[in-house]
Amino acid sequence: MLDLVPVLPVVVVEDVATAVPLARALVAGGLPAIELTLRTPAALDAIRAIAAEVPEIALGAGTVTSAAQAAAAVEAGAAFLVSPGCTPGLLAALQATGVPFLPGTSTVSEVMTVLEAGVTSMKFFPAEASGGAPYLRSVADPLPQARFCPTGGIRVASAPAYLALPNVGCVGGTWITPADAVAAGDWERIGKLAAEAAALG
User: Which terminus of the chain, N or C, has less C-beta within 10 A?
Assistant: First the structure.
């Protein structure tokens, strides 16, 4: 899952009507993957719409913080799940869904807890606030089996430093789908930002 795209678009959808054209713009720009966050009332309906109309995109649900959200997202059509952090209960719930997932971590102990559960792919969040690329470089030697999708505060200029690390498969980015561009339906701009991000791989 970490090798699908160099940059995983992290998307907030306020209006379900924007979901499908947004997903199509990402695919057209060369990023056929999306982490649609469960931060708005429209999120689950947006996942349903994308699953039905843009089957070529790898569709994930992000900001999963409970077992109920995990189950609801998979029922709506999410093919993978991403959480901002991970408790033992949430980790068990994510595993129970049967779909791939990236549990959130930000400390060495959290990484080790996830590894003990047999999970080697995880999210690193909030990346910039938690030490950024230097932190992940430090983690690589003692915990070489852990691979990350760092997310949080990363921009197009800082992404290459993460992507150069041996334990980073991709980065999560909100900059590809700016709120003003989504609200305005500026799919051409989003397509260009996606193409720029895809070229980082």
Answer: C
pLDDT (tens digit per residue) in 137-176: 999 999 999 999 999 999 999 999 999 999 999 999 999 9
Q: Nearest 5 degrees, angle CA 166-CA 169-CA 175?
A: 120
Rounded CA-CA distance 165/44 in Å is 34
With b for 16 or more beta-carbon neighbours within 10 A and e for fewer, the 68-98 pattern comes to: ebbebbbebbbbbbbbbebeeebbebbeebe
- Give pLDDT, residue 9: 98
Alpha-carbon distances of 68 from 77, 89, 169, 173, 183, rounded to whole Å = 14, 11, 28, 26, 29
Q: By three-state DSSP, how is residue 198 classified?
A: helix
Out of 14, 35, 53, 128, which one is annotated catalytic? Answer: 35
- Catalytic site residue from 56, 75, 123, 188: 123
Q: What is the β-pairing status of strands 58-62 and 80-82? A: parallel
User: Cα–Cα distance between 38 and 180 in angstroms, integer?
Assistant: 19
- Checking if the pLDDT of 37 tops 90, the result is yes
Reported pTM: 0.97
Asked if the model's pLDDT at residue 1 lies above 90, the reply is no
Residue 192 appears among annotated catalytic residues: no
Classified as helix, coil or strand, 145 is coil
What is the C-alpha to C-alpha distance for residues 74 and 61, in angstroms, rounded to an integer? 8
**Are 103 and 83 spatial neighbours (Cβ–Cβ below 8 Å)?**
yes
